[in-house]
Amino acid sequence: SAIHGLTEFSELQLSANTQKAYRKDLQDFFGWAKTQDFYENWNQLLGPAQIAQYREHLRTERNLSKGTVTRRLAVLKSFFKYACARGWMLRNLAELVKGFPQNQDSKTGFLNEAQIFQVLSYLKYRGEMRLSHHLQRVGVETLLMLGLRRSEACSIRLGHLELQDSQWLVRVQGKGDRERLLPIPPKLLPTWCAWIQRIHRSACPVDDISTNPAAWMDFLKRHSSYPLL
Q1: What is d(CA 219, CA 58) in angstroms, rounded to the nearest whole number?
Q2: d(CA 177, CA 205)
Q3: Which end of the chain has fewer surrounding CB within 10 Å, N or C?
Q4: What confidence score (pLDDT) does residue 2 get?
Q5: CA distances for 127 relative to 26, 124, 134, 187, angstroms
Q6: Which residues contact 210 (CB under 8 A, 6 or more apart)?
């Protein structure tokens, strides 16, 4: 069945987020297919005309962006390629349907250097008496100085901090479960230390992390599963 096929296909992906996104996209397509006359025998009747019809449905009736439509078409093409490999279909006719040309210019805005310092100065001005204010400062500085996504920053655990050749590093789990090791900027390290000392006051070393790295390594190892934020 279509439901069994899309579940099997999505589970082959490495990332849980990718699995979820693929299932959602495919469920959307087969949900639309149920309103058409080829759903019951999709693997035999599905052709370029039906895929092009779905493309127009997404663009005109659902008013989705060209980029979103092209991404969904790519998921469909990958699924039908898998269906051919499994023997469910003879040919992947979806490959004949074109997506929209992709604009490589990012729509994501950014802060210039002056704005970054303005944000940091504002957070410093608010002080750190309240726990929420302190957390805001740590979170924003982490995002800005390491260039992380929110989900990446939130996934950092104390055990992800490492010391190599006198340099403190953090292991970050990124999109698609890609892992990268980033140096912790000198201005960010004291911010993290002060925050960790506040949250784990009874167990955390009182010394500065650069003064007593061995004690910090021992602490971080014993509390490796605790989140940074």
Answers
A1: 53
A2: 32
A3: N
A4: 63
A5: 48, 5, 7, 17
A6: 189
Q: Which two tokens stand for residue 147?
A: 């260039």
Structure tokens, 21: 């996104």
Interatomic CA distance for residues 167 and 85, integer angstroms: 48
Tens of pLDDT, residues 48-69: 888 999 999 999 999 998 889 9
The overall average pLDDT reported for the chain is 87
Both tokens of 76, joined, read 């469909």
Interval 69-116: pLDDT, tens: 999 999 999 998 998 888 888 888 888 888 888 765 666 778 888 998
Contacts of 187 (CB under 8 A, 6+ apart): 141, 145
Whether 210 and 217 have beta carbons less than 8 Å apart is answered as: no
Strand order in the sheet with 179-183: 161-164, 167-173, 179-183
Q: Cβ-count burial of 25 within 10 angstroms (0-12 exposed, 13-18 middle, 19+ buried)?
A: buried
SS3 209: coil
